[in-house]
Specification:
Strand 12 and strand 13 (398-409) form a beta hairpin. The strands form 4 sheets. Strands 1, 4, 5, 6, 7 and 8 form a 6-stranded mixed beta sheet that branches. A 5-stranded antiparallel beta sheet has the order 11-12-13-14-15, with no helix packed on it. A two-stranded antiparallel sheet has the order 2-3. The chain has helices at 30-39, 44-51, 65-77, 83-92, 94-99, 107-116, 118-134, 162-194, 206-235, 292-301, 319-328, 341-344, 347-357, 364-369, 431-434, 450-460, 463-469, 476-485, 497-518, 520-526, and strands at residues 142-151, 159-161, 242-244, 251-254, 260-271, 277-283, 309-312, 331-333, 372-373, 376-377, 383-385, 390-392, 398-409, 412-420, 444-446. The two termini are 60 Å apart. By secondary structure, the chain is of the alpha+beta class. The protein is 45% helix and 15% strand.
Length: 527
Amino acid sequence: MKGFRQSETPLEQMLMWSQKLDDAVPADHPVRLVDAIFDSEVFADTLRSWRRQYCLVEGQPPYDPKHLVKLYVYGMMTGLRSSRQLETACYNRVDVIWLMSGQHPDHSTIAAFVSKGGKQMRGMFRDALRACRQAGLVECRHVCVDGTNIEADAGRGSVKTLKELEAESARVDEQIRELEGQWEANEKREESLFGQEAPWAPGRGKDMGKRMKELERKRAKLKAALAAIERRVEESPEGKQIAVSSDPDSRVMRDKEGRSKPNYNAQLAVDAQSGVIVACDVNDQANDAGLLTPMLSQIEENGLERTEEVSADSGYNTGADIEKLESDGIVGYLPECRTQVYEKATRDSREALKAAQTGEVLSEAQWAALPRDRGVVAKEAFRYDAGTDAYTCPAGQELRYCHDVKDTVRGRERIRRQYGGCRACRTCAHAVMCCKNPATGRTIKRDEYEPCRERMRQRMSSQEGRDRYRVRRQTVEPRFGHMKRVMGLRRFLRRGLAKVGVEWLLACLTWNVQKLMKCWKGVAMAQ
């Protein structure tokens, strides 16, 4: 139609394409930086040991692991995660063709490479961290730790109860016995017709052998699911006895939208200065309790110095971890696990809490402003005296030691000292705010980690403590957003904790390589 832009190159016109593949990619294209980083000395030692594991004498020559790692990392950067997407890109995308030097690995080769390269991938992650440290990106003065749930490669229909798994396992065992019986009957029939020495006597059919392998794989997964239920019941007896039959290593967890589905718990430790990921892990725990110490230990295993400060959310606040931080000389910024009193408290609440802890006589307005935990005045408003081994309530009454109680906290059995027995609660004007039942009075429990918690509460009550804790918002939390939104890692593509761990490690390696790309000239000069 007249007036519109016309076609500049008719489809039947012959073109003279460049004969050099290098001319097809601009000089400032990001793929050139990815290629330069993996061709440098940063990953040379790890790649050299990786190549030694290949047999270069028999069969078709294997693909160099350096090319496949570059393919995966660059694919993550551009939103290509599946092996079939990467295979297609090796044929259709000029930048990927340039990166692979025209090689076209198929999807099965690409998928098997990641599944078998967990140890080497961990080495490359450490190499990238070492390069970041040489570039001055990593100081490890303040590390932020957090976790997120990422969906497993399993549907909700594969979530089954203990009884359903036992019944299905019995059905599979019966099917295997029937198939074996059919094969034995067939062998006897063929032997009676042809004899044992007949060269034309048919063996077990391919269809029967294929069916047997499928049933054995299914039985192995069902046994793994039953073992997962048994292990999780030991950790938390009050939990539901359910497991995922298609991916037994995953666990049914509730996401932020309130939906329960198979997930994995992905963990990150991020340097607060630069945003470089200094440690990562994947597990099947339903919460983050007890995961802080392993994450900090992994930082040192990765070749970095021990951090000076760490911040994490309330899910990591356990007595054992806080005590470990103090023994290691690490300053922690973790809000209270039971109730985030200091993080959510208003100015009036903090002033009322400070007055209660110093023993001042509270006004009615201050009583009303005291923070609440489960409908009653929070435990933080009670003052503990180690000399008398007693608590003092905001009204000035003492709660003395009564007896030890055994309870379960997050699946762990603990013995705690209980304080209470104050008769003044019955006639106290503020008993409704302080006690669930004024007739029995207020009770408080205390374990061996309570002194550590009290020091943590005091630190978090200060403005400096709250400011240091908020550093998480601009460091570790955006990393999860980038991986889920830009890299598309909202759902794992592999099954099993080992393979999922490599997939998560690869995503973290990709992020650190992107950090290196911004300062690559300085790193190259330092080597």
